[in-house]
Amino acid sequence: MTEGRIIKAVSGFYDVKHEDEIYRCRGRGLFRKKNITPLVGDFVEFDKSTQGEGFILSVKPRKNALTRPSVANIDQAIIVTSAVQPDFNPLLLDRFLVLIESKDIHPVIFMTKQDLLSEQDHEKWLNRQYMYEAIGYPVERVSAAHGKDSIQRLEKYFKDRVSVISGQSGVGKSSLLNVLNPSLDLQTNAISTSLGRGKHTTRHVALVEAGGGLVADTPGFSALDLSGIDAGDLGDCFPEIREHLIGCKFRSCYHYKEPGCAVKQAVENGEITEQRYAHYIRFLDEINSRKPRY
Question: Number of folded domains in the chain?
Answer without folding.
Answer: 3
